[in-house]
Write a structure and sequence with these properties.
- The protein is mainly alpha-helical and about 140 residues long.
- It has one domain (about 1-140).
- It is about 85% helix and about 0% strand.
- It contains four helices and no strands.
- The radius of gyration is 17 Å and the shape is elongated.
Amino acid sequence: MIIIGIISVVMYLVAILMISSNTYEFEKEKKIKFILIGILVILMITWLIVFISSNGIHIENKNYLKIAKTTAIFIFAPINTIFILPYLGYIINKYKQKRLTKEKVKSKIVIMLIIVFIILVIETSYIKSFELGLLSSVIK
């Protein structure tokens, strides 16, 4: 589990660097808020997706399921952060530079949210397969 934690931290560091480079117009304080709030929101969404995907998995030892859920969160939350926040920061940054109109920003965010929703639906079944794979390797 320590290796998974280290990998997760490294992925979060990559995500923070990507977000930071895409939000260069932000003030330092607002950039930090954007990063922290964004990571927390994506972490909560990922937790919800993992909770939904774990529904229906029945196993005698609930600790194994808890470990599988935690592992999924540690892996998929930073991946989701890497896919979502840098692009969102890029859109907002271009708006701050007055290179995008408010209507363009809205349309880009709506399109991004639709794509993210589709990805999260697919990710739900993928996470379930991931958890079942982890559990089957432990139970054998």
